[in-house]
């Protein structure tokens, strides 16, 4: 018999050897019979050795297609999208949460809640007059005032 063929038990005919029949031909994911070509599941690329499969980091391209207000988390063979803090949705579509309307604003009892016209950094705090600060000391004395004067607390 020619290479890649084996003699059948009748001693007269030959059959192609199924390369995938033994140890999946060393393929990490899938083996195509009978030639033994390796391929990978969705979310993976065939490695340079022609047998291993390397995870594709979908988050490296366009945030994985997640919403602009979401983060992308790479997983084995895929990825997930999650809305950022202050936004709600499935990660593919995120909408701003109106903390004033839903009562989660944590405004002081003597303050009214209004959505700011300019987004504040996540680490910003505000005093009772609505002036934004980047940080406060342990004695709650304002440090490093910003140029943003939001209307969150008036």
Describe the protein.
By secondary structure, the protein is mainly beta. Helices cover 3% and strands 31% of the residues. The protein contains one helix and 13 strands, in the order ββββββββββαβββ. The strands form six sheets. It has a three-stranded antiparallel beta sheet, with no helix packed on it. A two-stranded antiparallel sheet has the order 1-2. A hairpin with a 4-residue loop joins β3 (30-32) and β4. It is rod-shaped and about 95 Å long. The chain starts with a strand and ends in a 9-residue tail after the last strand. The model is unreliable at 131-154 (pLDDT under 50).
Instruction: Specify the number of helices.
Output: 1
Shape designation: rod-shaped
- Strand segment count: 13
**Element-level helix/strand string:** EEEEEEEEEEHEEE
Low-confidence parts lasting 5 or more residues at pLDDT below 50?
Answer: 131-154
Pairing-aware structural class of the strands and helices?
Answer: mainly beta
Q: What does the radius of gyration come to?
A: 30 Å
Q: Note the main sheet.
A: 3 strands, antiparallel
* Distance between the first and last residues' Cα: 90 Å
Strand order in the largest sheet: 11-12-13
Strand content: 25-35%
Proportion of helical residues? under 10%
Estimate the mean pLDDT confidence.
81
């Amino acid at each position: 018999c020619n290479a890649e063929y084996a003699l059948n038990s009748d001693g007269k005919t030959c059959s192609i050897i199924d390369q995938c029949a033994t140890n999946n031909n060393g393929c990490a994911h899938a083996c195509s019979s009978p030639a033994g070509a390796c391929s990978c599941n969705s979310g993976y690329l065939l490695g340079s050795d022609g047998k291993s499969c390397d995870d594709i980091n979908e988050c490296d391209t366009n945030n994985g297609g997640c919403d602009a207000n979401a983060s992308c988390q790479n997983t084995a063979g895929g990825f997930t999208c999650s809305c950022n803090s202050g936004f709600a949705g499935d990660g593919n579509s995120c909408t701003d949460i109106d903390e004033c309307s839903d009562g989660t604003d944590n405004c002081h009892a003597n303050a009214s809640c209004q959505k700011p016209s300019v987004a504040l950094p996540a680490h910003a705090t505000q005093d009772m007059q609505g002036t934004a600060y980047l940080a406060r000391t342990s004695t709650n004395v304002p440090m490093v005032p910003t140029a943003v004067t939001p209307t969150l607390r008036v």
